[in-house]
Design a protein that fits this description.
The complex is a heterodimer of chains A (93) and B (576). Helices cover 88% and strands 0% of the residues of chain A. With 93 residues, chain A is mostly helical. Chain A has one domain. Chain A is elongated, with a radius of gyration of 15 Å. Chain A starts with a helix and ends with a helix. Chain B is globular. Chain B is 57% helix and 7% strand. A seven-stranded antiparallel β-sheet of chain B has the order 3-2-1-4-5-6-7. Classes of the chains: A mainly alpha (93), B alpha+beta (576).
Chain lengths: 93, 576
């Protein structure tokens, strides 16, 4: 029972907090990289970020184990965040 | 559980884990979402509700040009020093001229914004009874009567749970198409509930998805600052670039008379071949004044928040900037948010909005009841913790599903029953709403056996009383409003009666369902039990979808609740 609760807790945290981090990273990355005017890019990025959030949550609860759940959230978030930083450093936006 | 165990069983495992997610994501904020859905549904008729709640005000709209002229005259006289003026010309839905101005230096404790409504006929300020009218439902829908910005955050979080619940619900139902045509009321209990829930959900699925996603988009500047921070130094820069018509232009601090606005409105309306929906004057009476005209939200789907605009110099009347066509992206965002607000919808479409949104309310309501129905089936006898959670959820269900409706009715009743000139009466209207809801919750836990039938009956009676009390307190009752073709008043009263009929019918169902399984001994007073099978379902879904599905299935809640396993769920309450 305890184990089960921990598993649920871990996944819930991955979904809510990790999902938000993923959505934020996606929004930042797209805002920088989308080839449009900055207001348009940010608007698109903001709207799509909720799709990323929802997909992240679904992934967390659909996948086999907690490790994959966390990895599936944090890896893409890190990649997107890295792309954002790279884009900003290169002055894309 | 499934989430954890779902080994690589492929599709079956996925559906199990999604079913788990659907169950819990839907439950946690279910009651908040029910209230949000219901008040949001009512908010589609925001001006009409306000009109009903101020029956002493009767006005006919006049053309925008004249209206703006009247408004400017009033504001020149009463608010020459204001920082900003906002003028909303009258429309068929809102026949009064609405004005809002920002006081330059509000005294401590005073509000920075003053709201005035003018009668188009006289040009004088209108003083109806104090009420929040339809604005209450509109605000509650996304602020939950909680301090800024917490209420908005709470509502948005609930919205995100809704989005997850909808998506996981779709994945769970692989037979979504066949399920749509499946309704097996005779199977009773959980099966009927499930079918009803499916019908309500799938029927309005595009709407439910749209309304949930667009609700989040409406608040995305607050919810998802990362995208803005990535590119802009502060959110203000972004909003100024996207919501150009809202831009605040700085004053020059030199007095100068403001240009007459009416000719500018005439110019804009000719140019757009449409109406001006909002006039904003920044720094009136200053050399740096600007006049911004925005096209009316009713003129286009995407104009709800992001409409074409024109800005003029406020002293010379010279055109400064403007946009007739917004960029494709901004227009897309405009469509997403515009669809949510539904301001473009003409009466027929607005009623469709109302009905499908009621189906959404019913979707949440049936979902909540289904949680009980399913869980009770699986529950092991004598499991005290299980019995507790069933009792808790069932109490919250009854107290909310019937209680919010009772609250709405109480809000309307108090509007008529309090003296029209009583100061602060609008506060009491809101208190009536929350008291009725709160009392319903208390009752639900005090009388667990009777709660469904009693609370549903109370909601029905309260709704039915609204037109009755209206008839005694105003001269605009159904007997007069119907022949006169006064559709705002008549439509309101008739909708209340329809709601009362629906809830009355559900209350009767609940009462029968409670008696039906009472074949158990020691229930001598069970009047005339509806023999045999539980009354669950019936043609519920089909019928309610057509009419006003609010939470019709609630009725059968008690069926589900009373039916299968009495052992687990034996409320201590009032069983003699």
């Amino acid at each position: 029972m305890m184990r089960y609760r921990l598993a649920v807790f871990s996944r819930t945290a991955a979904a809510i907090l990790g999902g938000y981090a993923l959505a934020s990273a996606a929004a930042a990355c797209l805002a920088v990289w989308l080839p449009m005017g900055r207001a348009d890019a940010v608007t698109t990025a903001q709207m799509l970020s909720f799709v990323f959030y929802a997909c992240g949550v679904i992934w967390v609860f659909a996948t086999r184990n907690a490790w994959r759940a966390w990895a599936g959230i944090l890896l893409p978030a890190a990649v997107l965040g890295g792309l954002f930083l790279a884009g900003r450093a290169m002055g894309v936006a | 559980m499934k989430a954890g165990k779902a080994k690589a069983q492929g599709e079956e495992g996925l559906r199990q884990s999604m079913s788990w997610l659907h169950t819990w994501a839907g439950l946690i904020f279910g009651w908040v979402l029910y209230a949000m859905f219901l008040t949001g549904t009512l908010a589609f008729f925001r001006p009409e509700i306000t009109a009903w709640m101020q029956p002493e005000i009767q006005a006919r709209p006049i053309p925008s040009v004249q209206a703006v002229d009247l408004a400017q005259r009033y504001l020149n006289e009463h608010a020459p020093d204001a920082k900003r003026w906002f003028i909303t010309p009258p429309s068929n839905r809102e026949p009064l001229i609405q004005m809002l101005y920002q006081v330059a230096k509000p005294k401590p404790g005073e509000r920075g914004f003053v709201r005035v409504k003018l009668d188009p006929a006289s040009g004088q300020a209108v003083t109806g009874r104090e009420t929040r009218g339809g604005d209450f439902f509109y605000r509650f829908h996304f602020e939950l009567e909680t301090a800024f910005p917490w209420g908005r955050w709470l509502a948005s979080i609930a919205g995100m749970f809704m989005l997850v619940a909808i998506i996981s619900g779709i994945i769970t139902h692989k037979k979504i198409f066949t399920d749509f045509f499946t309704f097996r009321p005779k199977k009773g209990g959980q099966r009927a509930w499930m079918d009803g829930h499916n019908v309500l959900s799938v029927l309005g699925l595009p709407f439910h998805l749209m309304i949930t996603f667009s609700g989040l988009v409406l608040f995305m500047v607050m919810l998802m600052p990362a995208g803005i921070q990535a590119v802009y130094e502060n959110p203000r820069q972004y909003t100024d670039e996207v919501f150009k018509s809202f831009k605040v232009t700085p004053p020059l601090n030199q007095p100068a008379p403001t240009v007459p606005i009416a000719p500018l409105v005439a110019q804009a309306e000719q140019h757009w071949h449409g109406r001006v929906g909002r006039v904003t004057v920044n720094n009136p009476g200053d050399a740096g004044a600007t006049v911004t005209l925005v096209r009316d939200a009713a003129d286009g789907v995407s104009y709800g928040r992001l409409a074409p605009y024109m800005r003029f110099n406020g002293v010379t009347g010279e055109w400064q900037e403007g946009e007739d066509e917004l960029s494709a992206t901004v227009q897309t965002a405009g469509v997403v948010t515009g669809l949510h607000l539904g301001l473009f919808a003409e009466p027929l479409l607005r009623w469709f909005y109302f009905l499908v949104s009621m189906a959404g309310t019913g979707m949440v309501g049936t979902g909540l009841v289904l949680w009980i129905a399913k869980r009770r089936q699986k529950a092991r006898p004598g499991d005290a913790r299980e019995a507790f959670s069933l009792r808790l959820v069932d109490g919250l269900n009854a107290g909310t599903i019937a209680g919010v409706v009772f609250g709405v009715a109480a809000f309307f009743l108090v509007n008529r029953l309090l003296p029209a000139d009583m100061p602060g009466r609008q506060v009491w209207e809101v208190r009536a709403f929350f008291s009725a809801w709160g009392l319903s919750l208390v009752y639900a836990f005090l009388f667990p056996r009777r709660k469904w039938q009693d609370l549903l009956a109370v909601a029905a009676v309260a709704l039915a009383l609204v037109p009755v009390v209206n008839a005694f307190t105003t001269t605009r009752h159904l007997g007069l409003s119907l022949p006169a073709g006064d559709w705002v008043m008549a439509g309101f009263d008739l909708t209340c009666l329809a709601g009362a009929a629906l809830f009355g019918w559900m209350a009767r169902k609940a009462a029968r369902a409670r008696k039906a399984p009472a074949k158990a001994p020691a229930r001598a007073r069970a009047g005339k039990p509806v023999a045999g099978k539980p009354v669950a379902g019936q043609p519920v879904a089909a019928k309610s979808v057509a009419a006003k599905p609010a939470s019709s299935h609630v009725a059968d809640a008690s069926t589900a609740q009373a039916a299968p396993s009495h052992v687990v769920y034996e409320p201590r309450g009032d069983t003699p």
